């Protein structure tokens, strides 16, 4: 796993990578390259914009990219875990009010 300066986390499962270069070719910023063993490597983590094109195009599911929110932790589909928690609390409160339950 590598974490770039923008907080983007790359997880590479090297045993799944067959060195096809699809992820390298689809990366719009040139973040990825192959290492000396022809396996995927994060050559320039500072360039990653967390677009996930590498992840979406990899036929072997060998790479995963996660964007981290500053100060809050990992993002989940564009929302921080902290925001997800607030949404869950609001939903529980609303469901309780609808059913007549007392808080």
UniProtKB/TrEMBL annotation:
The keyword Iron applies. GO terms for molecular function: iron-sulfur cluster binding; metal ion binding. It comes from the Bacteria. Residues 8-37, 38-68 form the 4Fe-4S ferredoxin-type domain. Keywords: Iron, Iron-sulfur, Metal-binding. Transmembrane segments: none annotated. Pfam families: Fer4_7. Residues 71-103 are annotated as: Disordered. InterPro entries: 4Fe4S_Fe-S-bd (IPR017896), 4Fe4S_Fe_S_CS (IPR017900). PANTHER family: FERREDOXIN SUBUNIT OF PYRUVATE:FLAVODOXIN OXIDOREDUCTASE-RELATED, IRON-SULFUR-BINDING PROTEIN. This is 4Fe-4S dicluster domain-containing protein.
